[in-house]
Amino acid sequence: MYETVTQPTEASVAAHLAAIEDVTRRADCEAIAALMQRMTGCAPTMWGPSMVGFDSYHYQYASGHQGDASVVAFASRKGDISIYLMCDYESAEIAALLTQLGKHKFGKSCLYIKRLSDIQLPVLEQLIALSVAETRRRYPRPSVSSSL
C-alpha cells in the first residue's frame, strides 16, 4: 500500500529555520512561519525534512488512498520559497488576488516566490486565509463526543 512520504516529524522547526544560510531567506521564512501560525492558530511542525506545516487534516480519495497533510505549509527550496495552499486558482477571487500579489509563479497547489519583498504581504495573507478556510471546509475535524 502506498504511504505518503511527507509526514509530521519531531524535528525542531526553530533549528530548521536557523539552519537556512541566507540571512534574507531565513528572515522571510521566519516571517512566513509567524504569519501561518497566526492565520491557523496552530504551532508549526516539520513535515518531512524540509516542509514547515501548520495544523493537519485527514483525506481519503475515491481510490481508497488516504493520509494526512498540513493545512498550509512552506519550504525553503534551492531557488524559491514554496508555499503550499489549497486554493481554486481558477476562481475569480483567487485570480484577482494573484494579479495583485507581485512577482510569483504557481502550480496546482503551490505558490513560488523568491523573497517576501517581491510580493504584497497583505495579499499573501488573504490567500493563506482563503486556503485555510477552504481546507477546513472540505475536511472538517470529526466532532468529539463524550459518553457519560
Which terms would index this structure?
148 residues; alpha+beta; Aspartate Aminotransferase, domain 1; 6 strands
Description:
The chain has 148 residues and is of the alpha+beta class. The protein has a single domain (13-138), classed as Alpha-Beta Complex (Aspartate Aminotransferase, domain 1). 35% of the residues lie in helices and 24% in strands. The chain contains four helices and six strands.
Radius of gyration of CA atoms, rounded to a whole number: 16 Å
Oligomer: single chain
* Poorly predicted residue ranges: none
Strand tally: 6
Shape: globular
**Helices and strands: which structural class?**
alpha+beta
Number of domains: 1
Summarize the structure.
The chain is 35% helix and 24% strand. It is an alpha+beta fold.
Topology:
Layout: H1 13-18, H2 23-40, E1 44-47, E2 51-60, E3 66-76, E4 81-84, H3 92-101, E5 105-106, E6 110-113, H4 121-138
Antiparallel strand pairs: 1-2, 2-3, 3-4, 4-6, 5-6
